[in-house]
Amino acid sequence: MDGDEYRKNKANDNRQEERNKNFTADNEYLAKTLNNLKKRKYPNPLIWDDFEIFQRDVHLGKPEPDYKQEVRVVGEAKDLADEELEIHKEITREDNLGWSKSRLREFFTEKTGLTPNPK
Question: How confident is the model at residue 96 (pLDDT cuts 50, 70, 90)?
């Protein structure tokens, strides 16, 4: 492995390590928030309708996660030139501030075993 390849691999490893730290910190915050909700609900068990309360508590305590996924480029945006692509990504980032509902729903489902109510 030459020097350039080594530096590239090392930089990738460092970025992934930072992502993992941020993701772990976010999961710890989500777990703490869920435990607080369980304590408030005790002795009653959590139900799926409590997801909205969990989601609200998460946003109130920490408006944005430490881990932010890179913007995905899909559809017509794939054909944009470099500068236009960066503008598109910036606009998309601004539109998607905060926690994603899918991430919160997945965490809530995984930790509680509850699934959304069919409507």
Answer: low
